[in-house]
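Honest question from a wet-lab person: if I give you the sequences of every part of a complex, can you actually get the arrangement of the whole thing, not just the pieces? Trying it with mine:
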Amino acid sequence: MQKFWSILFGGTMLAALLLFIVSPFVSGWWLPRDISTFGGGIDRLFYLILAITGFFFVLTEAILVYAMFRYIARPGQKSSYVHGNHKLEVIWTLVPGVILFLLAVVQINVWAEVKFQKNMPAPDANTQQVEVMARQWEWRVRYPSAERMQSWKTNPKLAQDFASNPHLDDVHIPNEIHVWKGGKDPKDQHRVLVHLKTRDVLHSFFLPNLRLKQDALPGKTIPVWFAVTEHNTEPVVDPKTNEKHWVEINYDPTTGKVKDPNQPSMVWELACAEFCGARHSLMRGKLYVHRDEADFLDWLKHAEAAQNHH
Amino acid sequence: MIAGLPGKFALRSVAFVSVFLGLLVLSGCEGEGYPDDLVYAPRTDPLPTTPPDKDAPAFDRPGEYPEVLFAGMAADERGKLLVYPAKLKEDQHQALEKSLTRLFGTPAHPRVGSSDASDSVKKLTQDLYLDEETLARGSMLYRHQCLHCHGLNGDGRGATAPWVHPHPRDYRQGRFKFTSSSQQEGRRKPRREDLLRTLREGIDSSSMPSFRLLPDEDLEALVSYVIHLSVRGQTEFEVIKSALSAEGLDQSVDEAVNAFFEDVVNQWQDAQTPNNAIQPGPYPKFANDQEMRASVQRGFDMFVRAKAEGSKKSAGCLGCHTDFGRQSAYKYDAWGTIVRPADLTTGIYRGGRRPIDLYYRIHSGINGVNMPASKDNLNPNEIWDLVNFLQVLPYRSMRESYGIQLESKEPTQVAARP
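Yes, you can. This is the full assembly:
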């Protein structure tokens, strides 16, 4: 009778484990598509830690369920008093400690690649710069105009003040991050430097498809970098108005639905990952990756023209 | 599994499981609309009427709204500006509710006009996509995205409303701040594209976010639903105001509802016609930088000049946008809340940052606040001069190169201030 609880525990955990084992094979349940240059390293760490912790989790829970089942109180039975086993306790402290230490060492390179400022692209002729100002409850994104970007190519020193010196013709678009793709190799990467700010409270700039997350702190401008290896945005001409729009592949912006469900979704999201108030969960944006610089500049010029509407 | 357990365990497991499942069920789903039996509540909060152009004390504290409208005013002054629906007689209340439900339906099944609607109502429904299917979809989306700020009946008193500044728009007066229609003030309604612009761009420096990532169909449905709430709200507003005025109603409540409804419908219909859109003058072609410089300088002069001096015009801006907006006083608006003239040195414009948006604001003013129209005072080129100046104003390096000298201390950075 009392074994009911151990059976309930054991059964629930087994069901959860089976669900977990099944999830990589169910569309949408596992990790989103990785399209960044440093995402691979992060995913490898994820799997490594998952394997280690998964093993120990199953082991400890199995022991727990077994102990609940085997040693459940019985009427008339006295409990035995155990003072502990010093050797066992040393082992089960040292072994996890060593594993954790090894993990800490193994992850340094990945962390350094993504987060160390000395490894970030400098604001110069070849780096795309974007300012992302988080606010309750949207992302206000500022791009340099095409002309400003061109001036950086001829005089790289001019590129250094983008974060602190807005220009009138900078392009302001809420909730859309537009970049273009590059290669995987460090030599052909197209690197983007984001200047992350917040106007009010803490937010967190989270691009799941890039494995990138950075808290935005009030009062600080925090540099964030990434490079993307695939594109998801194509120009489409509206037959009725003859206007060009940039739309994600396999996405219909009129209905918000995927066009062909057999093809993967190419909608790559930006989300807020630090609770920031009533609309935190609705504080979403999109990542638009253009196929090359020319297409990006085409979009940028269209956006500039729309913004400069007299 | 439960059978055969001692009573205590069975009770506990059943309780646990049912609470868990109950929470799941009650949390609701994104794709759901309002419950079928939900009705729009009768209006009990006071109707604000337009306040005098008077400074307000600092804005209300977080959480205070909407207990006190026109906060900081003396009670008798405030009393003159507010109309209290509670003073309606019981039979008037009931008749009003009945008529409004007949014309506008319920949150889950909204409509504009009953089945025997007049031709003008039918035309409005067609032109503004106010058919029942679009409104039902809009209602569902509104519940998910907008309800928490703008409230069930568009009163701007949702749960989040007291905690944000400025407070969300109350649609029930049929007044929207940022319009490009050129109708007479007081009867001016937004054009559909104005509401779409607000949804797509959000209102920077307020809590209204951008919804441009929603599918286009959803945006259209939301605009329709907001128009529905506004038409309903304003019909109710006008009937109550009229019933409680000195003359009272000279017809039955139902007739009054129909009459005001037709009038509101006409206002919305008018706004959508092409000749009721502001026609901006063409943007002048500046042959060289000297001419642009002269334009910016003219704009600056008109901005700061307090009164017209002979042929030199005054746009009178500095009078409210004190120190170019950096030291504006708080003022009351037509909704009974407190805002202040924009700080024009930030480069953030609530009604949109495009030059044409600035043109619209200067040309026809901003509804509901005391931003006056300049269309009778300034010709189109002069308005463009002002727009050119406004575009230069937030950027120190541009000011320097255009020779604009601000009198008081320079702002140290272009930043947002609420």
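Two things worth pointing out. DSSP finds six helices and 14 strands in chain A. The interface with chain B takes residues 1, 4, 135-138, 140, 164-168, 172, 174-176, 199, 252-257, 278-279, 282-286, 306-310 of chain A (CB under 8 Å).
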